[in-house]
């Protein structure tokens, strides 16, 4: 029952995110952050809720430090959570912290399967970040 309630909150957050993207309304993004956060509070094993909250905070709202904090928390629970690693690396890059981004992307590539949807992007980003060194 707990997971079902968390899933409904997560889905509601996804709808707010969709409306925010379609209409460029920051208030919808804020509502989505709220619902993703509530879903994670209801069921702390529902990692996708916290992951998507972090993605939304970083990408749509530009709140990079908060996004990184979400990814840090997820990685503290599971250091092999590849989606958290990939997205934290993206936030490091957004924040101009290229050495941290490179380290996360290299770890992502070492831990992930080449069939992962982000694999090719990660390889390209690693090449670019190494050129920056």
Task: Provide a quick synopsis of the model.
By secondary structure, the chain is mostly helical. Helix content is 80%, strand content 0%. The protein is built from seven helices and no strands.
Rounded to an integer, what's the Rg over CA atoms? 15 Å
Number of domains: 2
- What's the average pLDDT? 90
What is the tally of helical segments? Answer: 7
Taken in chain order, the helices and strands follow as HHHHHHH
Distance between the termini: 50 Å
Residue runs with pLDDT of under 50 for 5 or more positions: none
Shape: globular
The biggest beta sheet reads: none
The helical percent reads over 70%
Structural class: mainly alpha
The total of beta strands comes to: 0
Estimate what percentage of residues fall within beta strands.
under 5%
What keyword list fits this structure?
mainly alpha, 133 residues, 7 helices, 2 domains, globular, 0% strand
Indicate the topology:
Blueprint: H1 2-23, H2 26-42, H3 47-59, H4 64-77, H5 82-94, H6 98-111, H7 119-132
Helix pairs in contact: 1-2, 2-3, 3-4, 3-5, 4-5, 5-6, 6-7
What report would you give on this structure?
With 133 residues, the chain is an all-alpha fold. The chain has two domains: 1-62; 79-133, no CATH class. It is 80% helix and 0% strand. It has helices at residues 2-23, 26-42, 47-59, 64-77, 82-94, 98-111, 119-132. α3 packs parallel to α5. The chain is globular, with a radius of gyration of 15 Å. The N and C termini lie far apart (50 Å). The relative contact order is 0.10.
């Amino acid at each position: 029952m707990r997971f079902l309630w968390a899933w409904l909150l997560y889905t509601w957050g996804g709808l707010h995110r969709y409306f925010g993207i379609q209409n460029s309304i920051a208030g919808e993004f804020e509502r989505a952050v709220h619902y993703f956060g509530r879903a994670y509070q209801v069921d702390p094993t529902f990692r996708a809720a916290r992951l998507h909250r972090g993605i939304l905070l970083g990408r749509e709202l530009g709140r990079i430090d908060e996004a990184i904090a979400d990814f840090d928390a997820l990685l503290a629970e599971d250091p092999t959570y590849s989606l958290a690693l990939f997205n934290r690396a993206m936030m490091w890059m957004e924040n101009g912290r290229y050495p941290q981004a490179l380290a996360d992307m290299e770890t992502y590539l070492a831990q992930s399967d080449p069939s992962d949807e982000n694999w090719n992007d990660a390889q390209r980003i690693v090449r670019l970040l190494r050129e920056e060194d």
